[in-house]
């Protein structure tokens, strides 16, 4: 299993600096990225992309035109999405898109959900990669072996792991008395690459796939929940979105564990509580008046 720290130059970018390092060893590489960690609504979506034929000039030309999805216009992303998923590349590339729902985000937290979606995307590839390059400083725990850190390791951690590997060869492994369950598949190496979506072509491709897929989902959610303007802001906390929440409350696609949504829920509870107290007060007042009238009649 690979190490969490990067063995490449921290500022290096492009195929020569990343994918070709493994291709020269005969190892396939997949890049993985996510979209939708910051919004207040909607799922977090991840994608994985892998080149299966390293010397395919048409594929390499396509990768040369892909960049971090945030640096591209919506039209450029849509066009590249169609090219990256074109059926003519079947058997020459592999790609997969996965997600974690709002319910899954609220059940844990957005970081866990993002890494879970990335793991699902990698497992969804039709050809399993030997190396996975992950955008950011964390690695999906499900892709790692027992004891491996999912957060980015320091240089001291890397040196310690290397020394442990060297020492392990001098110790006899204990015999296994009974057969164990088969280990789940994991890539041999998983490497976290900070700002990888602008440095590693395979991650850039995954970035485009994840971003476009999520944007399209938010467009569909806009049709289901037209009061919030999801098509315009994709669920992010814009002033227009926050104003809509204040006016209409929240919907089922809002992330209830996110601060602005929690605040909206609390405001609604206070409002409902205040209205209930007001109704109760009016009811008591009406009962008192009615009781007073009955008392006057009885006296008369």
Structure description:
The chain is α/β, with parallel strands linked by helices. The chain has a domain at 19-158 and 186-219: Nucleotidyltransferase, domain 5. The protein contains ten helices and five strands. The chain has a five-stranded mixed sheet with strand order 3-2-1-4-5, sandwiched between helices. Helix 3 (74-84) crosses helix 7 (201-224). The mean pLDDT is 85.
Distance between the termini: 95 Å
- Helicity, in percent? 40-55%
Number of strands: 5
Could you name the CATH homologous superfamily of the domain at 19-158 and 186-219? Ribonuclease H-like superfamily/Ribonuclease H
Q: Strand order across the biggest sheet?
A: 3-2-1-4-5
Class from helix and strand fractions: alpha/beta
What is the CATH C level class of the domain at 19-158 and 186-219, in words?
A: Alpha Beta
Query: Which architecture of the domain at 19-158 and 186-219 does the CATH hierarchy give at level 2?
Result: 2-Layer Sandwich
Outline type: globular
- Give the CATH topology of the domain at 19-158 and 186-219: Nucleotidyltransferase, domain 5
Order of helices and strands: HEEHHEHHEHEHHHH
Low-confidence stretches: none
Please describe the biggest sheet, giving its number of strands, its sense, and whether it closes into a barrel. Answer: 5 strands, mixed
Mean pLDDT: 85
Strand proportion, as a percent range, falls in 5-15%
Radius of gyration: 27 Å
Number of helices: 10
């Amino acid at each position: 299993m690979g190490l969490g720290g990067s063995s490449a130059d921290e500022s290096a970018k492009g195929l020569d600096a990343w994918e070709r390092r493994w291709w020269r060893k005969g190892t396939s590489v997949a890049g993985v990225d996510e979209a939708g960690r910051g919004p207040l609504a909607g799922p977090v979506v991840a994608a994985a992309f892998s080149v299966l034929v390293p010397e395919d000039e048409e594929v390499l030309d396509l990768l040369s035109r892909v960049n971090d999805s945030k640096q591209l216009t919506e039209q450029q992303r849509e066009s590249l999405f169609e090219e990256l998923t074109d059926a003519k590349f079947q058997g020459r590339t592999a790609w997969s898109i996965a997600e974690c729902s709002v319910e899954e985000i609220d059940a844990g937290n957005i970081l866990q959900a993002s890494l879970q979606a990335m793991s699902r995307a990698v497992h969804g590839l039709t050809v399993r990669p030997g190396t996975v390059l992950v955008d950011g400083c964390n690695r999906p725990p499900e892709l790692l072996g027992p004891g491996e850190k999912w957060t980015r390791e320091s240089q001291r951690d890397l040196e310690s792991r290397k020394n442990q590997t060297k020492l392990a060869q001098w110790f006899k492994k204990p015999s296994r008395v009974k057969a164990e369950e088969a280990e789940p598949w994991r890539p041999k190496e998983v490497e976290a690459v900070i700002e990888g979506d602008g440095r590693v072509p395979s991650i850039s491709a995954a970035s485009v796939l994840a971003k476009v897929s999520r944007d399209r989902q938010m467009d569909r959610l806009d049709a289901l929940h037209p009061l919030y303007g999801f098509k315009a802001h994709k669920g992010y906390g814009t002033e227009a979105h926050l104003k809509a929440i204040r006016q209409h409350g929240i919907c089922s696609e809002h992330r209830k564990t996110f601060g602005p949504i929690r605040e909206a829920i609390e405001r609604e509870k206070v409002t409902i509580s205040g209205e209930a107290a007001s109704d109760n007060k009016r009811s008591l007042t009406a009962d008192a008046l009615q009781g007073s009238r009955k008392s006057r009649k009885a006296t008369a």
